[in-house]
Amino acid sequence: MSAEATAATETTEATGDAVPEEHAVPDGAVPGEKTPGTLKARLAHWRSWRTRHPAAARALSWTTTGLAAVLVYGALVLPNTVNALQYNRFTRLPAEAIVGAVLVLALPRRPRVVVAAACGTLLGALTVLNLLDMGFIEYLGRGFNLVLDWGLLDDAQAYVEDSMGRATALGAAVGAVVLVVLLLVVMALATVRLSNLLVRDTRTATRATLVAGTVWITCSSLGLQVNGMPIASDRAGWALKVQARRVQETLRDEAAFAKEAKADTFGNTPGSELLPDLRGKDVIFTFIESYGRSALEDPEIAPGVDQTLDASTEALEKAGYRAKSGWMTSATYGGSSWLGHSTTMSGLWIDNQQRYRTVMSSDHLSLTKAFGKTGAWDTVGIMPGVQKGWPEQEYYGLDKVYNAFQLGYKGPKFSWSTMPDQYTLEAFQRLVHGKKRDKPLMSEIILTSSHQPWAPVPKLVDWDELGDGSVFGPIQKAGVDPSELLTDSDRSKEEYGKSIQYSVTSLTQWLERYGTDDTVLVFLGDHQPIARVSGAGASRDVPVSIVAKDPKVLDKIAAWNWTDGLKPAKDAPVWKMSSFRDRFLTAYGSTPRPSKD
């Protein structure tokens, strides 16, 4: 023994005082040397703390157990929609908790811990899926699809980055990953802790489980409720069934739709028999982002939009144009605009990413490709929202596509939108429409200024002052910050309405300024805005209009019974968006010659 240790021992024996714990030497360690904080030492320190502070230790233990119970119970009864987050959803007795207690009480220690941890991890994963459902239902009007929707999370991050900056997007992504991992781990620890509590007194736990089971069966049989909600709950089991059913239906749909896409009413129609009644016309198909029925009928949004449509109809009539309008039910809601575009152009109902990929790799005739197949039109796409490679160009049969970097814009972005619609249309005129050509032009234009989050919204400037778009700099700086609208439905509605007014006015002013006797404009919305703006339970309908100077063009669709002007009547016909291609081809003289699978 060293001199220092001997001295310490003698001092202790002489005084009767214990060596302070922080100076105690662990077994097997060399006195006087620094000892690492081993797990054993830390556990010993924790036990010592509990011994010295029993009241605080008990309070901490019961608090932790209480939090674990709340976490597990909340996960078992958690709904999958934001609107359902009400207190009566958390006054229920979950069957899954009773079954779990029975299982825990029946198992030996090691299997019990493993099963409890596995169940906790599964419950954490189910909670993540419920939260994803909340987001998808709120924004896209449907639940999260385990098979198809993982790629949309990348799109969501890109949207946040484009709207609010790279730092915010990165922080949100890291935060989401950390939250998911933490939820899985904490939920597993919580279920293990609760299982340990149950087996401390198996007799009492068994009796309590039996009573709970009896109460659940009684409440279920009698249909007993609290505040309109059944007391007996199997919410977690039901949610698992829903997710499993979605996966099953998705896998079945993939095979069925691939077969459906091979059959085409106009698949074998030669180019000479396609669209003969539009020969010589410059035809423009324009999609206005998020232009939905709510813009024309919601009492908080409609007054301004209706006024814009009425004024635009009048201005176009003065310029010699007439219009007819109706409704179409979009294949998507709140986002995924490409599903609306492809449904309109393909004549197929494309409401998920798998269907979209199937169509894009198929030979199914798109409406735009039909124009090119005739040999009578040049075809072009104006895509200011495209910022990377776009292989879909081949499916759509477009000779040339101008993306966000090819339109010459030098001004600021307006949140997600790379450039104001007015500039997009002026660039289209400068680069394509205004040039001399040997053939008429068929164009597909995607306007993006009314894209969520609707802040800041551009303002119209003099068309002669557009230049390279730098004129929009002060307008963008003076606009509303997107963060101000994230949780404010009233402000979102207000700015959404302004964005639709801006987009419609830009388009109709362009037509007044640059349209000719042979211009035919078809414009429509791709989908409704998110539920926070369109309202809970809103339809998926979008307006569609056809505008032309030649009366023969509108005479061809007289049987459609559409409303005169740019504003469809409430009782105007409503079609599925997938029916538009065939109706349009038929109206303008195309001969059906089907291809079969």
From TrEMBL:
The keyword Transmembrane applies. Residues 1-36 are annotated as: Disordered. This is CDP-alcohol phosphatidyltransferase. It comes from the Bacteria. SUPFAM superfamilies: Alkaline phosphatase-like. Residues 1-15 have a biased composition (Low complexity). Keywords: Membrane, Transmembrane, Transmembrane helix. The keyword Transmembrane helix applies. The chain crosses the membrane at residues 59-78, 90-107, 114-132, 169-192, 204-224. InterPro entries: Alkaline_phosphatase_core_sf. Gene3D superfamilies: Alkaline Phosphatase, subunit A.
